[in-house]
Amino acid sequence: MKILLLEDDVNYKETIQEYLESLGYEVESFENGDEVIDTLYFKKYHLLLLDIRVPGKSGYEIVKMMREKKDETPVIFITSLTDIDNLSIGYELGCNDYIRKPFAAQELKYRVEQVLKVFYFHSNEEELNLNNDYSYNLTKGKLFHKEEAVALTPKEQKVLDYLITNLDEYISTKQLWEDVWEEKMVTEADIRMCIKKIRDKTDATFIVSKKGFGYKIDRKR
Fold this sequence. Notes:
Strand order of the largest sheet: 2-1-3-4-5
Strand content: 15-25%
Helix content: 25-40%
């Protein structure tokens, strides 16, 4: 899953980014709020971690602009002690949670996991039960078949994660190209081949396809 991090304290930024990447998240970090605004015009993320007081647009201003554009991407504010009194502003603007400096790595891990589970999967469980006896461990970010992990390449994992965050919904090839391949020079045949490789490692019907609609993964009914 992709996380955007806005933090102008270089040491904090590097520490947070390295820790989240060690957990398997893909992290892009920024020190200036204006850069974040520019990036959000053409990139999508699963979660934003925003310091409130930064150069350029503040964390508050970024969330206000997002929500006005109907962008509901979850946001966790990184706050200092002096920001606590104004935290109600963040919730009124539409943040999902906050974490107060200084914080332990484990606290960050749990808060990120909880927001992602509730927002994308509407669940507090550790595992999602999928069709064909597969399960997806939300904490590990891994696919299992009867307790055996399925080995995927990084790109296959990104496709899987994207379909998992949109369970039961068809995702078009164009959406995959925009959000997973980030509009890089690949053909529809390349995307179909990636889907085929995932099916080869799982089951022919694990990823459901429908002409004109795209691809999806279903929850176990």
